[in-house]
Amino acid sequence: GPGGATRRGPGTPGRLTTTPIAPRAFFGKGDETKDPFKRHRLRDPTPFPESIGVGFQCALVGAKTAVTNPSQVWGPMTGATLVVAVALDVGGTTLTGRWLNPGEDAGALWTLVERVALVAVDGAWLLVSPLVAIAVVQQLLPLLGEKILFDALKAPPPGESPTGESPTGESPTSSSATPSTLAALRTARVAQLEASDGLGLRSLGVAAARAQSLATLAGAAVPIGVGVSLVPVAGPFIAGALAAAVAAYSLTWELLDPYFDKAGLDFEAQERVVRGNAVALTCFGVPFSLALAVPFFGPMTVAVAQGAAAEVVWRVLERDPEAEARRAEIAES
After folding, report:
1. pTM of the entire structure?
2. What is the pLDDT of residue 171?
3. For 58, which of 35, 203, 209, 311 could close a Cys bridge (C-beta 3.0–4.6 Å)?
């Protein structure tokens, strides 16, 4: 019947019984086990337009935290990404130059179209190639990105020294969540994540599915960007903004890969989480994707971007530690 299913009753061979089964929506009511926000105890998506400010604040605070708490593997991560990114930059621009180079017999209009397309494709490739480089390094040398991210996750909260004291040397006395309590909660959570086995070999399938998803997104954006770039004056700026947004979204997802792996989020869960927080993650990734697009020098900022992603984990993904600390203090009092 409606809303039910026919099953063979236990212990009654040949007899069919009707047992009501709740309809299974993809992430619908009554199916909380498939909702990654509940299953993995993540924050609900940050509402718009608050998500814009949160994303840019995460980039600023995260970069400061990463620079003041550098990881020991910054050098290897930067070097590996730089080598791959430069190879992709040189190879990509060479191929597109040959492909879109107008012939001598091309008409004036066709020559203009191909030159505009060449500029658009080259600009988009400068944004995309660092992403591909980071994805390659993450898969070949996964421990580098993981160590940089977790070293940043272990950094003391803003306004607290590594010893748990305030910058003035006094112990915090606020009635709200104290920095030391907040640091303790964060330390416990980081230890829990580090002890996790993660996705294991499933991470390869997740990486392939993520690459396919992002390639589909980029494939849909490229013809739109090329078409928009033909619009006089404003067209190239709109196309550039579109390319930057796609690159920023993709970059942030790649930077969060070590966290998602340790937290045990499969591809469907990751996709749901990043789409729900698309605005915040895109705004976070914009300054880093633009910095990475600078030929030769840009990839040197990859370690800062990877460390800064820790701020996204604390402010966008993980449950509010400060609220948890306040609840703990109330329970103790």
Report:
1. 0.76
2. 44
3. 311
Phi, psi of 119 (to 5 degrees): -60, -45
Mean pLDDT across the stretch 293-307? Answer: 89
Taking every pair of C-alpha atoms in the chain, what is the biggest distance, in angstroms? 84
Cis amide bond preceding 76, omega within 30: no
Burial string for 90-103 (b: 16+ CB within 10 Å, else e) reads eebbeebeeebebe
Distance from the first to the final alpha carbon of the chain:
54
Q: Which residues contact 216 (CB under 8 A, 6 or more apart)?
A: none
Greater model confidence, 61 or 98: 61
DSSP per residue, 170-226: PPP--SS--HHHHHHHHHHHHHHHHHS-TTTTHHHHHHHHHHHHHHHHHHHHHHHHH
Q: What is the DSSP string of 55-109?
A: HHHHHHHHHHHHHHS--TTHHHHHHHHHHHHHHHHHHHHHHHHHHS---TT--HH
Report the pLDDT value the prediction gives residue 229, as an integer from 0 to 100.
77
CB 299 within 8 A of CB 86: yes
pLDDT tens per residue across span 258-270: 999 999 999 999 9
Nearest Cα neighbor of 302 from 27, 26, 118, 83 is 83
Residue 30: how many CB atoms within 10 A of its CB?
9
The residue assigned the tokens 């997104």 is 217
